[in-house]
Known about the structure:
Elements: E1 3-10, H1 18-29, E2 39-41, H2 54-57, E3 59-60, H3 65-77, E4 80-89, E5 92-100, E6 106-110, H4 120-123, E7 132-135, E8 138-144, H5 151-154, E9 168-172, H6 180-194, E10 198-201, E11 204-206, E12 212-214, E13 218-220, E14 226-229, E15 236-243, H7 244-253
Parallel strand pairs: 1-2, 2-4, 3-4, 8-9, 9-10
Antiparallel strand pairs: 1-15, 4-5, 5-6, 7-8, 10-13, 11-12, 13-14
Amino acid sequence: MSELRTTLVQCDLRWEDPVANCRMLEETLGDLGGEQTDLIVLPEMFATGFTMNSREMAEPMEESATVAWLREQAWQRGCVVTGSVAIVEHGDYFNRLMWARPDGSCATYDKRHLFRMAGEHERYAMGHERVIVELKGFRILLSVCYDLRFPVWLRQQPGPGEHFEYDALLCVANWPAPRRHPWRVLLQARAIENLCPVIGVNRVGEDAKGLPYAGDSMLIDAKGEALIDEPKGEAFVKTASLSLDELRAFRDKFPAWRDADHFSLADGVGS
């Protein structure tokens, strides 16, 4: 039976202080590694908080100390470690999700939907490619925060002869407490409509602008039921397992995918 042991890391973040945040995360994770988990999920912009100060805080991809730290953590701990980082590459700035593997390789996903209410669309460039990674037999679609509000971007798009494009959806976030209800509902909705587990990790605490974060990080099964759901506002590190066999059995028993609409996705957003 293929199982994916998944660790959610819900924590407070030091504002625009990558060194302090990486040190804090090392201490928080302790000796957690491949003997206990396959995947460690950190929040969006775990090194800085959700900063719009991209020109000063974004790190060059090839020289990024934060990316190097993430790769080192994956190698030392013997499991995948993931979270997003402010990156500058070829003159463009990205909110980039890094998927660091223990063999030293790294997959990346650039956030597609930029949160205009904070001016993110003016400080970062939009991503154009959906990215699916594989781990322990699970195909996992990567996403970041505001992407969660756009179901078409995250919808299963199986190819010819396929029933499903992916087996789990991952979303890392800095999602403020005043909008915690949509966060919780959307995580569950994405699980239900795509017949797949959803891994959602958010932060807690307060940022430099006084904006509070309630957390509500959750691991949700394909029925929309929470496997991990801790009390509001509390930092935690918690692990639970997803079963590929159980997922396949549920999809066979409840084949809603047979009635899914066919569609194609054009590039670009909004107007």
